[in-house]
Amino acid sequence: EGADVLLLSTGGMLAEVVRSADELLLEGISAAVISVHSLAPFDSDGLCEAADRFRLVVSCEEHTVVGGLGGAVAEVLMEAGVETAFRRFGLRGGFPEGVGSHEYLRRVNEIDADALSRLVRSALRESA
Hints:
- The protein contains 5 helices and 4 strands.
- By secondary structure, it is of the alpha/beta class.
- The chain has a 4-stranded parallel beta sheet, sandwiched between helices.
- α3 links the parallel β3 (56-64) and β4.
């Protein structure tokens, strides 16, 4: 549980999201982490209820930000009129770059815990 940011994770991103939440806590940023196990059915009411308690909501996924969890969260928040700041965290544009281990590819493509922490810090500054 947290008070500043709600991090929604799906698939293999959960460990990176938890690492980021731990890193942010050391800086005084309190993050709640929810593992979203299913996009269909999607718990729209639960999301809106949770999102209302935070300054920032971030969807975190290991593939493109188009569609998927980020798209579902954006649709639900917009249609419900929830005014919490929202960011999508994942791959942006084209195919991922590089060849190597899973950890290496996350780092190179900026979808690791450090990149997520940077996004959260920046978005919280913008929403202040």
